[in-house]
Each structure stands twice: as structure tokens, then as C-alpha cells.
Structure to design on (350 residues):
């Protein structure tokens, strides 16, 4: 490699890494803000002291048992949704794709509806008894996995093209939405209210136990997806270009589809459907750092975490002490943000 080219490449890498470090700093600031807002009067300084001193007073209990798992869940969920959204947009070559394009959200909502209305679930088939809260989580996750498995199996019956995957996803979405509507029709007012609240999407259900599972699934999906960063770059050029470099485009598309869907299923089952994070974060990442997935993937994850943290902070402060479900905030903010990105974009970055 000529000296000028090597120097230019090092400068390119340096700029991308600086941008990632800057995003990490913004994430740290947003996390500190998330620890400092809420119904109680804990400020930034007191929250910081309680975090590092391990206090066991009221402030320490609020921070360690309520706010910290909520903030870390927001980070894990935001990262996972952004990663899944980026992967979907890449493999489907569709800038409007999101983690919910394949009907995973509808399937998870159907699973939650079965648990809430029928007080039962797939786990009952194997004799596994769970408490009500974890029954909803398990049912939502298993139904989402069932949807992903059906799309995977049906895709294998014919050529795995983006169009095939999208059409199957739309079919699954309508199927599970119809089943959910039927269960809503059967439910009583209390069950209907519980289902509607679950479908809003909320971080209020965050616990240390759920966080451990969510963080493990998200981290594993990110690591396995990041190993395919070069392949995803090639896939953007088209299937023929990818095959010319020795990449099996169909196998790659199915592999990352399953990873993204599993991460999305885990997130939805824990916190409910939260929209627009997975759609907007990848676009912001492309504007900031370009289309190289080696840098775009972590950048999108950081941006997704920041967006969800800020949305949750707003949800806890706008009508304090009432807490608005964060899914409502992301929808309100996501629509104008997406429209603004479309209108103010001066060049094509897709």
C-alpha cells in the first residue's frame, strides 16, 4: 500500500473511532441523566454519590433497585433494536425496514395476549409453571421465535430474496394481529386494559433478572452480527457482487435475519413493543459515520441507546410523578425526527 494511501486510511479509521468515542460520551451523559430524573428528588450529584458509595438508605434503594436496572435495560434494548433495524435495512435493502418488519412484534403481542387473556402459554405444554409476569415474557418470546422460525422455514422453500422475506413478514403480521384482535374480543375489561398497557411498551417492568437475560442475548447477537460486518458491506452492493467475493448471500441473509429477530424477540418480551428506535437510529448513524458496518453497527447501537434513554427520561418527567409508557414517547418523537431526516438530507447516504 502506498504511503499516501496508508496515511489516508489511518486518518479514516481515526475519524471513525473518534466519532464512536464521542457517542460513548453522549451515552454516559444520557445514562447519568436517566439515573437522576424521576418521581423522587434525587439530583445528578446525589445519584452519582449513591451509585459509587453503595449507600443503603432510601436514595440508594431507589437508585439500585429502580433506576439503575431501568437505565441499563434502556441501554440494552436501545442497542438491540438499533442493531436489528440496521440489519433489516441492509439485508432487505430497504431504508424503511425496522426490527418489526417481519411481524415479530405482532407475534410477541399475540403471545402476551394468550398469557393475559387465557392465563396459559406454550410453557404449559411441557408442564412448566411460571408466575404471571414471567409467563407473559416467556409467551411473548416463544411466539416471536415461532414467527421467525416460520419465516425461516418458508424462505428455504424457494429463493431467499428480500421480496420473499418481506411478503412472508407481512403475512405473519396480519395473521398474529388477527389472533390478537380475537383474544381482545374474548377478554374482559381488566384483561383488555392489561394487554393494551403491555402493548404500549414500557421500561417499568425492568428488573435485574430480566436485564441479565436481555443483556446476554443482545451482546451475543451483536458479537455474531459484527463478525459479518464485511459481508454486510458486500451485500449492500447486491447479491451478485457479494457472490463474486465468495459470500453466500442467501445463507448470510438468513443467518443475520435470525440473529436480529431473536434479539428483537427478547427485547419485546421484556419491555413490550417500542417503535422507531430501530428505524431512526441506523439512519442517524449513516449520516454521522457512513455506511461501513464495522463502524456503523456500533454507532447505531450507541445512538439507539441514547435515544431510548432520552425518551425514558422524558417519559418520567413530562407528567411527573406519573410515568408515560416510553413507547408513546418514541412514537411521538420518532415521526417528526424521521420526516426531518428525509427533508433535510442533502445527499443519498443509503
Amino acid at each position: 500500500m502506498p504511503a499516501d494511501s496508508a496515511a489516508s486510511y489511518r486518518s479514516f479509521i481515526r475519524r471513525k473511532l473518534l466519532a464512536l468515542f464521542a457517542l460513548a460520551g453522549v451515552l454516559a451523559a444520557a445514562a447519568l441523566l436517566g439515573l437522576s430524573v424521576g418521581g423522587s428528588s434525587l439530583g445528578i450529584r446525589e445519584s452519582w454519590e449513591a451509585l459509587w458509595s453503595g449507600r443503603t438508605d432510601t436514595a440508594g434503594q431507589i437508585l439500585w433497585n429502580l433506576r439503575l436496572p431501568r437505565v441499563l435495560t434502556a441501554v440494552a434494548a436501545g442497542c438491540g433494536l438499533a442493531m436489528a433495524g440496521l440489519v433489516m435495512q441492509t439485508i432487505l435493502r430497504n431504508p424503511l425496514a425496522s426490527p418489526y418488519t417481519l411481524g415479530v412484534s405482532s407475534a410477541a403481542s399475540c403471545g402476551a395476549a394468550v398469557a393475559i387473556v387465557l392465563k396459559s402459554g406454550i410453557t404449559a405444554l411441557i408442564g412448566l409453571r411460571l408466575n404471571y409476569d414471567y409467563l407473559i415474557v416467556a409467551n411473548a418470546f416463544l411466539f416471536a421465535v415461532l414467527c421467525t422460525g416460520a419465516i425461516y422455514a418458508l424462505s428455504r422453500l424457494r429463493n431467499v430474496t428480500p421480496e420473499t422475506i418481506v411478503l412472508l413478514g407481512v403475512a405473519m403480521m396480519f395473521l398474529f394481529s388477527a389472533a390478537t384482535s380475537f383474544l381482545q374480543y374474548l377478554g374482559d375489561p381488566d384483561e383488555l386494559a392489561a394487554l393494551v398497557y403491555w402493548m404500549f411498551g414500557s421500561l417499568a417492568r425492568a428488573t435485574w433478572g430480566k436485564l441479565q437475560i436481555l443483556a446476554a442475548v443482545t451482546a451475543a447477537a451483536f458479537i455474531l452480527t459484527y463478525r459479518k460486518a464485511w459481508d454486510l458491506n458486500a451485500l449492500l452492493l447486491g447479491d451478485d457482487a457479494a457472490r463474486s467475493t465468495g459470500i453466500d448471500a442467501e445463507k448470510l441473509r438468513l443467518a443475520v435475519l435470525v440473529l436480529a429477530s431473536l434479539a428483537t424477540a427478547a427485547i419485546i418480551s421484556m419491555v413490550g413493543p417500542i417503535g422507531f428506535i430501530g428505524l431512526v437510529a441506523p439512519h442517524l448513524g449513516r449520516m454521522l459515520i457512513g455506511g461501513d458496518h464495522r463502524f456503523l453497527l456500533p454507532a447505531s447501537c450507541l445512538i439507539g441507546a441514547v435515544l431510548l434513554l432520552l425518551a425514558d427520561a422524558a417519559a418520567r418527567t413530562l407528567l411527573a410523578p406519573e410515568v408515560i409508557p416510553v413507547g408513546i414517547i418514541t412514537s411521538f418523537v420518532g415521526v417528526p425526527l424521521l420526516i426531518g431526516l428525509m427533508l433535510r438530507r442533502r445527499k443519498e447516504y443509503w
